């Protein structure tokens, strides 16, 4: 089967191609404008086509710098996500790819900045060479303009022996250009996966060099090094007639000496709006940082999982959303995303944190969850919370059928979802579009089931009491066990409840056969739109994407799988 799952991927391709198309249009249009514009005819005599290369890449650089801050404005994206009128269906799912788009735009900035710098290196060398004794004719005449009163210069390099680098660093354009280049190199190199994993604080600090980058970009054009003929001069000085009569410019009335000026800087016009928007974003984050977070409960679960219950004034959430958590006792710079595991109907919000790195290990230790007694409430470290922010899982209720797949600690976002379902079905007046949920959890460690089993047991009991056991179909897969566990499982296999989870539904051992699972779901819901929601490793994500594509029907009236991946 082929199908409408392709719509989601198709939109991603359309958005990327649209971005690429705008870049190409701006580059080509600007390139040919500078190649043909009459006011830059004499500038092209000195610089040749590198003038167009420099200016076209500069415009594309401005365009991408305008875009780069928008994908990381989390509050804006959450607002758009919550506005269903403006953002529905496949378009809404593109918001989950904001970081991918941010990286794509960053590559665009890097490419155009490289073209711009290289083109200007050639420009400087041509400016310098045109002042040499080897330069003859019109080229030499243009370079000498500005040596006498009432003349404006075209060539910023005034003498041939002059050191171009030294001269460049005496200008606004030169200094800001160097700062922009260094800032960009720092930001790009520190954004690699290796650096982020080895030292998050280094990544955070160097990424905030973007402030210097944008300030320098805003004033970069004030140097006005690249100059063109003024409009008043063009009306008096006919280039077609006068360009071959450069020796008579000061004597022939029809050919007065041409006058030149630099273009008005425009970069600030491109970036002003996004910078103001992002400044508002940071103000909101700072305001949230200042709000008090009260820790009401701390639970240490097996397999290195810490459960925190918190309260915060005015905090409102939806199932599947995430928050950013900062612990100043560990690092004043690091903010880490964690999916909320509580339901909106509860009077607290909670997260489950597994020790999976230096920061999370330090957090568990700070709360006394590493084999020691839990800290007294008054001794607990202070936490700051930013959010909540929207995520893919908030769309679960928008489908008649939803397939939720979790691997390991990736089960945490589904905890909030299942709790929310439990509360919604407790309210008799609630009518849900969602009529069927398939839940899959693949986990390696049997101890990790403990904290989640209570929730599933409560849900199982509740659904049974209301006669709605058909609503939730859950499948738990254990992929790791030792010989003792295998013997224990075999001895208790015939019991009514599962030996590991205590649920009526028995645990499966090994990994799911996704072909069989998707085939069965497609057969059971032949004309449904099915949302597939996943939180876990990339390798499994690729497999599930393939399954969604494979088992979606080409017929618009058939079954369609729509893939959504939880990402921060």
Automatic annotation (TrEMBL):
InterPro entries: Cyt_b245_heavy_chain (IPR000778), FAD-bd_8 (IPR013112), FAD-bd_FR_type (IPR017927), Fe3_Rdtase_TM_dom (IPR013130), Fe_red_NAD-bd_6 (IPR013121), FNR_nucleotide-bd (IPR039261), RBOH/FRE (IPR050369), Riboflavin_synthase-like_b-brl (IPR017938). GO terms for cellular component: cytoplasm; NADPH oxidase complex. Keywords: Cell membrane, Glycoprotein, Heme, Iron, Membrane, Metal-binding, Oxidoreductase, Transmembrane, Transmembrane helix. The chain crosses the membrane at residues 12-33, 53-72, 104-122, 168-190, 202-223. PROSITE patterns: FAD_FR. The keyword Transmembrane helix applies. Pfam families: FAD_binding_8, Ferric_reduct, NAD_binding_6. It catalyses: NADPH + 2 O2 = 2 superoxide + NADP(+) + H(+). One of its GO terms (molecular function) is metal ion binding. The keyword Metal-binding applies. It is found in: Cell membrane. Residues 285-395 form the FAD-binding FR-type domain. GO terms for biological process: defense response; detection of gravity; otolith development; superoxide anion generation; temperature homeostasis. Its main location: membrane. It is a multi-pass membrane protein. This is NADPH oxidase 3. The lineage of its organism: Eukaryota, Metazoa, Chordata, Craniata, Vertebrata. The gene is NOX3.
């Amino acid at each position: 089967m082929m199908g409408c799952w392709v719509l989601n991927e198709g939109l991603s391709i359309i958005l990327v191609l649209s971005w690429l198309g705008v870049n190409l249009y701006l580059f080509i249009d600007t390139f040919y404008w500078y190649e043909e514009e009459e006011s830059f005819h004499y500038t092209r005599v000195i610089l040749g086509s590198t003038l167009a290369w420099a200016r076209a890449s500069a415009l594309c650089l401005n365009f991408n710098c305008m875009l780069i801050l928008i994908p990381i404005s989390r509050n804006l994206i959450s607002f758009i996500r919550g506005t269903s009128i403006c953002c529905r269906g496949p378009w809404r799912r593109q918001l989950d790819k904001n970081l991918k788009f941010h990286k794509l735009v960053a590559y665009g900035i890097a490419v155009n900045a490289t073209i711009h710098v290289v083109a200007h290196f050639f420009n400087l060398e041509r400016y310098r060479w045109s002042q040499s004794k080897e330069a003859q004719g019109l080229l030499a005449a243009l370079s000498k303009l500005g040596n006498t009163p009432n003349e404006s210069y075209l060539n910023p390099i005034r003498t041939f022996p002059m050191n171009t680098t030294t001269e460049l660093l005496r200008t606004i354009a030169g200094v800001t250009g160097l700062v922009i280049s260094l800032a960009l190199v720092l930001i790009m190199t520190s954004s690699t996966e290796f650096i982020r994993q080895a030292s998050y604080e280094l990544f955070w600090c160097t990424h905030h060099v973007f402030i210097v980058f944008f300030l320098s970009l805003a004033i970069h054009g004030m140097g006005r090094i690249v100059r063109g003929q003024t409009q008043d001069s063009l009306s008096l000085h006919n280039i077609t007639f006068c360009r071959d009569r450069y020796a008579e410019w000061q004597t022939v009335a029809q050919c007065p000496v041409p006058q030149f000026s630099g273009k008005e800087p425009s970069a600030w016009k491109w970036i002003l709006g996004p910078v103001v928007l992002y400044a508002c974003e940071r103000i909101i984050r700072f305001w949230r940082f200042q709000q008090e977070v009260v820790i009401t409960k701390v639970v240490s679960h097996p397999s290195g999982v810490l459960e925190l219950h918190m309260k915060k004034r005015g905090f409102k959430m939806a199932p599947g959303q995430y928050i950013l958590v900062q612990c100043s006792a560990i690092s004043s710079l690091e903010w880490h995303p964690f999916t909320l595991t509580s339901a909106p109907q509860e009077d607290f919000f909670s997260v489950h944190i597994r020790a999976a790195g230096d920061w999370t290990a330090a957090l568990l230790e700070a709360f006394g969850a590493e084999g020691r007694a839990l800290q007294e409430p008054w001794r607990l470290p202070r936490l700051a919370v930013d959010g909540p922010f929207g995520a893919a899982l908030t769309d679960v209720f928008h489908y008649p059928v939803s397939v939720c797949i979790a691997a390991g600690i990736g089960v945490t976002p589904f905890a909030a979802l299942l709790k929310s379902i439990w509360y919604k079905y407790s309210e008799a007046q609630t009518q849900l579009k969602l009529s069927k949920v398939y839940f899959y959890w693949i986990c390696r460690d049997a101890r990790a089931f403990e904290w989640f089993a209570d929730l599933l047991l409560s849900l199982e009991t509740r659904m049974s009491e209301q006669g709605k056991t058909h609503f939730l179909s859950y499948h738990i897969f254990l992929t790791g066990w030792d010989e003792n566990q295998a013997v224990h499982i075999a001895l208790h296999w015939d019991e009514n409840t599962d030996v590991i989870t205590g649920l009526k539904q028995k645990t499966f051992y090994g990994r799911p056969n996704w072909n069989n699972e998707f085939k069965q779901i497609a057969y059971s819901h032949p004309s449904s739109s099915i949302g597939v929601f996943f939180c876990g490793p990339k390798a499994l994500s690729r497999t599930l994407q393939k399954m969604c594509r494979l088992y979606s029907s080409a017929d618009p009236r058939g079954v369609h799988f729509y893939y959504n991946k939880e990402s921060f």
